[in-house]
Amino acid sequence: xxxxxxxxxxxxxxxxxxxxxxxxxxxxxxxxxxxxxxxxxxxxxxxxxxxxxxxxxxxxxxxxxxxxxxxxxxxxxxxxxxxxxxxxxxxxxxxxxxxxxxxxxxxxxxxxxxxxxxxxxxxxxxxxxxxxxxxxxxxxxx
Length: 142
Fold this sequence. Notes:
The protein is an all-alpha fold and 142 residues long. The protein has one domain (16-133). The chain has helices at residues 16-45, 51-64, 66-76, 83-102, 107-126, 128-133. Helix 1 (16-45) packs antiparallel against helix 5. The chain starts with 15 loop residues before the first helix and ends in a 9-residue tail after the last helix.
């Protein structure tokens, strides 16, 4: 494990929980990139009702992928600001997972995986070891 001092002045090894949270956020970001590229390619090559809307949807999903990817990088570098975007990503993933679980198709297993990843990531992100490793102090503590 890395023991170098981070840019925020926090030294010591990076906790595994923090590394796992960063990996899960990174995987979510990569999944969004793949999904966005898939939507955009289908917009170009397929026969959508509205080609512009399909391409715009794909580009939007690719841009949304930046949030978990940037958060994952920040978590790996032990930047305290990175926990906020990572938590927001997980909170946004829960309603998506719920909607996937309501489908009557192949989307149900995807919804299960997304829900498990989102909940696991939230547990890892609010863990005290993660909070300490990022240098986040509780309310009223200076």
